[in-house]
Automatic annotation (TrEMBL):
Keyword hit for Transcription regulation: yes
DNA-binding region per UniProt: 26-45
PANTHER family registered for this protein in UniProt: HTH-TYPE TRANSCRIPTIONAL REGULATOR RUTR, TRANSCRIPTIONAL REGULATORY PROTEIN
Domain of life: Bacteria
Location of the HTH tetR-type domain: 3-63
Keyword Repressor set for record: yes
Keyword terms of this UniProt record: DNA-binding, Repressor, Transcription, Transcription regulation
Source organism (scientific name): Streptosporangium jomthongense
Name of the featured protein: TetR/AcrR family transcriptional regulator C-terminal domain-containing protein
PROSITE patterns listed in its UniProt record: HTH_TETR_2
Length: 210
């Protein structure tokens, strides 16, 4: 077994959160994941708050950074798409990414890079702040909505939505039936495609305001 270290402790905490949600992460459950006694964990982290700081930083580390050399719209699109995918892997992080008061180096590097691409594209400081807040609100909100859906992408959408459409028809909700039959139940439907549609609208609006 690898020697216990701060990195191994944080990776273990990430695994616990991924498996059971952030509520399942305790010093005891972490120690069990690592195969050590609970007191051993405290040799590497001061407590749960430091662990939360650390695993949030690990999540930010997974999100692709925009490149200052690329087209700002494409770089922001790439970063937004990457953030969405990372949050699908770590849905517990949705409520934590912007909650930490002692952010780690990956978190700070990430925020600085996003602001840098916006400033480099010609956005004034205030507008860059508006743009960043808008983009993150959209990405985090979409990821939360996506995580809450009763179906998993296109794989089982028909078996979930078809009975709902039949109920809506029986109870007199014609617009819901129309959307289900003319859009959601069509071959190839994927709710994830809505992400690109919304992101395009935001980027178009930011381009005009820039």
């Amino acid at each position: 077994m690898a020697q216990l270290s701060r990195e191994r402790v944080l990776r273990g905490a990430l695994a616990v959160a991924d498996a059971g949600g952030i509520g399942s992460l305790t010093i005891r459950s972490l120690a069990q994941e690592l195969g050590v006694k609970p007191m051993s964990v405290y040799h590497h982290v001061a407590g749960k708050e430091e662990i939360l700081d650390g695993i949030v930083d690990l999540v930010f580390q997974e999100i692709e950074l925009p490149s200052a050399d690329g087209d700002w719209r494409e770089e922001i699109r790439r970063r937004a798409s990457s953030a969405r995918l990372v949050l699908r892997r770590h849905p517990w992080a949705l409520g934590l990414l912007e909650s930490r008061t002692t952010p780690g180096p990956a978190t700070l590097r990430h925020h600085d890079a996003v602001l840098g691409i916006l400033r480099g594209a010609g956005f004034p400081v205030r507008m860059a702040a508006h743009a960043y807040a808008l983009l993150d609100s959209y990405v985090y909100g979409f990821a939360l909505q996506e995580a809450s859906l009763p179906f998993d992408g296109p794989r089982n959408v028909t078996e979930i939505v078809e009975p709902m459409a039949q109920q809506a028809f029986a109870e007199g909700y014609p617009h819901l039936v129309e959307m289900a039959t003319e859009h959601v139940l069509k071959p190839g439907y994927d709710f994830g495609d809505e992400f690109d549609f919304g992101l395009d609208l935001i980027l178009d609006g930011l381009t005009r305001r820039r």
